[in-house]
Amino acid sequence: MPKTLDDIDHRLLALLQQDSGRTLAALGDLVGLSPSAVQRRIDRYRETGLLRREIAVVDPSSALLAVCLVTLDRESPESHRSFREWVQAAPEVQQFYNVSGDHDYVVILATSGMAHHRETAERVIKNAPNLRRYSTMFVLDPIRTTLTVPTR
Amino acid sequence: MPKTLDDIDHRLLALLQQDSGRTLAALGDLVGLSPSAVQRRIDRYRETGLLRREIAVVDPSSALLAVCLVTLDRESPESHRSFREWVQAAPEVQQFYNVSGDHDYVVILATSGMAHHRETAERVIKNAPNLRRYSTMFVLDPIRTTLTVPTR
DNA sequence: GCGTGCGCGCAATAATCTTGCGTGCCCAAG
DNA sequence: CTTGGGCACGCAAGATTATTGCGCGCACGC
Questions:
Q1: Whether B42 and B81 share a structural domain
Q2: Distance A4 CA to C28 C1' (A)
Q3: Best mutation target, B58, B62, B136, B152, to test chain A (most A CBs within 10 A)
Q4: Residue B117, CB-side half-sphere exposure with 13 Å CA sphere
Q5: What CATH code is carried by the domain that includes residue A102?
Q6: Which of A55, A111, A150 is nearest residue B57 as measured by Cβ atoms?
Q7: Could you give phi then psi for residue B27, rounded to 5 degrees?
Q8: Is B145 within the bounds of a domain?
Q9: Contact predicate A69/A101, CB 8 Å
Q10: For residue B60, which of A147, A110, A42 has the smallest C-alpha distance?
């Protein structure tokens, strides 16, 4: 782990989470460092695991998103384990959270349309082991879709 | 809009959504094209808006994630508009969806800890205009966090 | 059969990334 | 107060990667 992140680190990480397509020189201008200094900081983020990877973001409005709230039948560790494995195997599962509260899991499905959604919900959720019940909320408008996380 | 995406386009987009850090040559090897052909296809995705941007992904386990289900007080267009503006102004709002069903919105908050979460929930949700009620589910384990969307 | 358009590979050029090196700063030990 | 080590920086050379002009071949429609 790096000791602590300074102000430049936070600014850099915010910029990278917003748009990592920038050149090292552009980033350097924005935070007041040389390209190589920026480079070395980014290397450090990667080494420490703070920065996982870079991804391209596809326009989400071309897809059908659905938020599913899932409750399991039993609370045994084994029941959770098999459920997780089952759901994780599906590529349509965009996000998958274990949560506190009335439900056990939140699953966000990304499909190409209602036909695909039905098929996927059937296969991934309805057929999941230890499922008690679930409800689905369809996304009418994906107002904001980021993975941005605060760094301080 | 491009006429239609062929099989190579789909493979390319899947690879880019998974990891856009690869070189054009590496992508070319994976899909069977020259670097410049890959380049031109990616340019097209960008021009047509299919590809929005590239982002760096920060390890989500270093943050506190919370899924909030929100119901508004009134259903008037004006009520929705002001609520959206209010919520969108907060940087802690990682994702923001208008959904069908019992609730109106799903908001995913990313904060640096419980203190930050409380402050944020107070400011962003509780003080939001036209709020009727909301519930919060804390993320115990972010099993999968992507923005991957199917392209076919 | 014959143009036309489109996407491809190749190759030269431009841009960006990468890395070794020397410098200055800060902190801790003497 | 001085000295030495560690660390991050900027600079610049070299390597890698991205960009773009060019000519070719294939498919489609006339």
A1: no
A2: 20
A3: B58
A4: 19
A5: 3.30.70.920
A6: A55
A7: -60, -40
A8: no
A9: no
A10: A147
Would you tell me how many other CB atoms lie within 10 Å of the CB of residue A71?
14
pLDDT truncated to tens, each residue of chain A (152 aa)? 446 899 999 999 999 999 999 999 999 999 999 999 999 999 999 999 999 999 999 999 999 999 999 999 988 999 999 999 999 999 999 999 999 999 999 999 999 999 999 999 999 999 999 999 999 999 999 999 999 999 98
Interior/surface letters B49-85, b for 16+ CB within 10 angstroms, e for the rest: ebbbebbbbbebeebbbbbbbbebeeeeeebbeebbe
What CA–CA distance (Å, rounded) separates B148 from A92?
8
Q: How far apart are CA A107 and CA A86, in angstroms?
A: 12
Domain count, chain B: 2
Tokens of B126: 């509780």
Range of A110's domain? 60-138
